[in-house]
């Protein structure tokens, strides 16, 4: 795509629902178990390697339908099989096969159109036809979808399956002419429009119905603004599309919820290790790169790779809220190996990065705590200006051995806390610290620096007589610090009455996970506990509430990792000798009891790597997952796309507050190896994740800064709304005490589903309100009671009384009866404020949701 067109993007998606098949061929019961199995398999697009005529690029089959994809469209071959019974039963029944072909052609399509298979599946197809073995075709690859690249100027089309139906998305880049997209239908007796806006093609076997396009724009903060898109009937059985009221500067996105996604990398390899989100919606990511052509921006602090070939520098990238522009991208490092492992951002957009450097010339600033490299590899802490052009502060942090920092937190005044591990026995500690001398081979360290990085506020070891690593860090508003990681020490410092006081992992290089909380001065432990079974574990991410509740995520190889009754997954699902299952465990403020503890995984290798927890206690986890990982219906990517055996996709998963159900879970990846190393969820409940990929077909969005893989590995930055199919967000939320009042759902709206429910977070605690559900919506909303409501009171509606709990959370069950598939309604929460939150006599309101029942 042309760079000049990357200022705004658009996607219009039209989902096919082949009702002719659903009511005829698809309604027949499978005659054999093998037939039933084939019907349950996902639609697969097989590449033409010579087994079909030259004009066919891909083919797909499902039940009574075959799809032939050619350069400028596709042909649907629809079949209906009937059996004519012969009298007397002496002769075989007569099978009658009725067939009709419907051809859909994009008129005026470019001669330069290319068809690319996306999301390679593990299986291949062989075509051993005829007696001449030289003409046999073997190893034809199969894909999850096919992308028509440059079908028109600035227009791509993606053909795919979703929930058993064939769908296609029309992707428009900025300034692309939607009126040029014209589709001619051949083989249909007539083309018409249903009352609900569906496009109906009448064929000899019945009707083929295309649902109305569901379309919205994305604002600068990630919020959704619905835009009306409709079919336009043209002469001679042709149709097009029209979008009303679109703002060209906003991205236009369609279900299933990918807001923006991009590669970031050069011709070498990149790995994104950590992500932070600025209040503007900009994303800051750090990691390591060995690419001499990493896409640095003009005026960035460091524009060349100092390490040379095969040596990594830190990279720091700031991506704007629309996902279309790099605010800055810079190297950071010296002439040896350097890598970023943690990042935090303040309200002014200043990024603080930590990690490890082996460079004697790593850029340290005058007056810093350590301006020279003290060891053979040191931790570092560095701070960049908001535009990435200046190094504000930077210091080494270490002793004469090897040390590494893995995570960082910064408070409002700039005071900075880091954790990692220290092999150096002379790693700097402070008088009165919890543990001023090192035990064993290496220990965790926790260090707090002043805002200028000139002195230590406190610095302490934490560990036993073996190996201990700090991997995760969270600092609350009072300065209390939660640390998580792994330990191989049977004498790691745990507190009396802790959840698990005994090391149970293997000796040698085995480890248990641990979670510990230091007081705000770093002089004593509030609690510390092992977390583990008979094999290896590690905590990768940690969160702590203002009340002291601690949630950790990580990986385990132990079948007997401690889980709680009723948790989402209480049984170990397997994995490899390297990674087994992920886990999420929540501890009470004393560290004595697990509020919940669950595995997260399937039979493939899984690892929970990132964690974000909101005020309601909903945990969002990211990581790397193999095949069989639990995903939810209607999620962005429900099929594993990576290679078999040790391959993995990234994932994003949301657990309900009780840890006994999934609100949302999706894969995120292409046909090679991918991971989502870190995740942060903003105040609108939109997830941003960073990781790595070696996939050439990692999902990206039109207008992204980089839409293709340039080297062996690339960093990835992805923003996802975590709403399932059928749900679209609109309007704005009132801010209450804990942040925007945000409405969500517990699952995809399917008819029937008696357990479907709405959720609301950040509402005033212990108050009453109303869930408003109606058949109409006012796009701009209307002001009433000091808030904006979007459900149209002039249309039929109902009001359901509701109430919040002590943290302002509500989950309202709305059973969906049978027989209402295709119906749409709109909904919103309205809350009475309290004297402590908003003031008595005032109100707050959530965003609105549009619900299309599947």
CATH-scheme architecture of the largest domain: 7 Propeller
Biggest β-sheet strands, sense, barrel: 18 strands, antiparallel
Radius of gyration: 28 Å
Strand content range:
over 45%
General form = globular
What's the CATH superfamily of the largest domain, by name?
A: YVTN repeat-like/Quinoprotein amine dehydrogenase
Which CATH first-tier class of the largest domain would you pick?
Answer: Mainly Beta
Distance between the first and last residues' Cα: 34 Å
- Per DSSP E runs of 2 or more residues, the count of β-strands stands at 58
Amount of helix: under 10%
Q: Classify the fold: give the CATH topology of the largest domain.
A: Methylamine Dehydrogenase, Chain H
Structural class: mainly beta
Return the average pLDDT rounded to an integer: 87
Structure annotation, total helices: 2
Q: What is the count of distinct domains?
A: 3
What low-confidence regions span 5 or more consecutive residues with pLDDT below 50?
1-40
Characterise this structure.
It is a single chain. The protein has 854 residues and is an all-beta fold. It has three domains: 3-253, no CATH class; 258-720, Methylamine Dehydrogenase, Chain H, CATH 2.130.10; 727-852, Immunoglobulins (Immunoglobulin-like, Sandwich). Helices cover 1% and strands 48% of the residues. It has an 18-stranded antiparallel sheet that branches. The longest helix has 8 residues, at 33-40. The chain is globular.
